[in-house]
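Quick note —
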Amino acid sequence: MSDLRAPRDAVCEWCGAPLPEQKGRGRKRKYCGDSCKQRAYEQRNNVSGTPIPERAVILHPDRADEMRDRLFELRCAAEDVATAHEEGADPEEIRHLCDELVTIARKLEELR
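Predicted structure written out below.
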C-alpha cells in the first residue's frame, strides 16, 4: 500500500504545487518557480510593519466560504465511508469511497 501523504516540504509554499525532485546539494526549494517566489515576497512585504504574522494566510471572504464548502464536502465523504463500512459494503465500494475522500482532501490542501 502506498503512502497517501506527500512530504510537507515537497510542495510549493505559495501555490501548493508539487516541487520537482531536488538533486545535489544546497538549500531545499520552497517555491515551484520565480512567479510564486515573487508572490511570497510581495506578501511578506505587504504585512511588514503590521500586526499580521509574516506567514499568515490571508483569504478573501469568498475564498473562506469556498474552504468551508470544501470542508463540508470532506466531512460528508468521510461519513459516506463510515456508513458504507457499517452497512457491510464490499471492499471495492469502500476503496472507491476512500479514493474520493483522498481526492477531496488533496484539493482542500491547496489553500491558494
